[in-house]
Amino acid sequence: MAISEASFSQESAADLSANLSANLSGRLSKIRALIPPPVRLIAVSKTFPGSIVRAAYAEGIRDFAENKVQEALSKQADLSDLTDVTWHFIGHIQSNKSRKVVENFNWIHSVDSLKLANRLDRQAAELNRCPNCCLQVKLLVDPNKDGFDVDELMAALPALDQLEHLNICGLMVILPYGLSPSASAAGFAKAQDLAKRINQSGMIRAKMTELSMGMSGDFEAAIAAGATMVRIGSGLFGSR
């Protein structure tokens, strides 16, 4: 009997989900052993199906990160019964998608310009929301990343501190790929120093209490430098 392409695709997806779920528990156990309790583990679930998010939830994970709005909204609808999940947005925010981000995410890690912050603040006021936000900063030259450079961020602080509908509470850092361990450690240390500098600058509303930094390949160095949140995808779920 011939097997239709649709049936094969469904079976392949089911097999993939089963294999990912089977490996998840062991990976998570190893990662948790390396993350001290105060540090928040955020599972980067982008590109993985809702069934994998559900499997991670069953293992005790409650924080999940996405970087595409439509993909995230579809998963949120499928997982609406998981009422204590905290959703984090970590991708670049297009102007026509920003309202959906404010409406559907508890945390926005990728506030990468004053223009975007102003837009999110207006939309948060309209929606009666106050999302937690991190300011995305580029500490090293990287043409592939968005974000404030340090001088730009320091100049924007007075305006950012006036925003009443965003809880600006930290920095988000993504280092360039391919750095040596020592270079990664130095980059993360710069983030901690910058957070301290901002906190000493007289800000009233915005406080840099959170450092969202460190991914599957460098989260240990990030934790050593003061990360309060690490974003781990492939380390938990395997290669995409």
Question: How large is the share of residues in beta strands?
Answer: 15-25%
Tell me the name of the CATH homologous superfamily. Alanine racemase
Which stretches are poorly predicted, pLDDT < 50 over at least 5 residues?
Answer: 1-11
Taking all residues together, what is the mean pLDDT?
91
> Element order, helices and strands?
HEHEHEHEHEEHEHEHEH
- Rough outline: globular
Tally of distinct domains: 1
CATH topology: TIM Barrel
Spatial extent as radius of gyration: 19 Å
**Total helical elements:** 9
Characterization of this structure:
With 240 residues, the chain is of the alpha/beta class. It is built from 9 helices and 9 strands. Strands 1, 2, 3, 4, 5, 6, 7, 8 and 9 form a 9-stranded parallel β-sheet that branches. α1 packs parallel to α2 and α4 crosses α5.
Keyword list:
240 residues; TIM Barrel; 18% strand; disordered N terminus; globular; alpha/beta
In short:
This protein has 240 residues and is α/β, with parallel strands linked by helices.
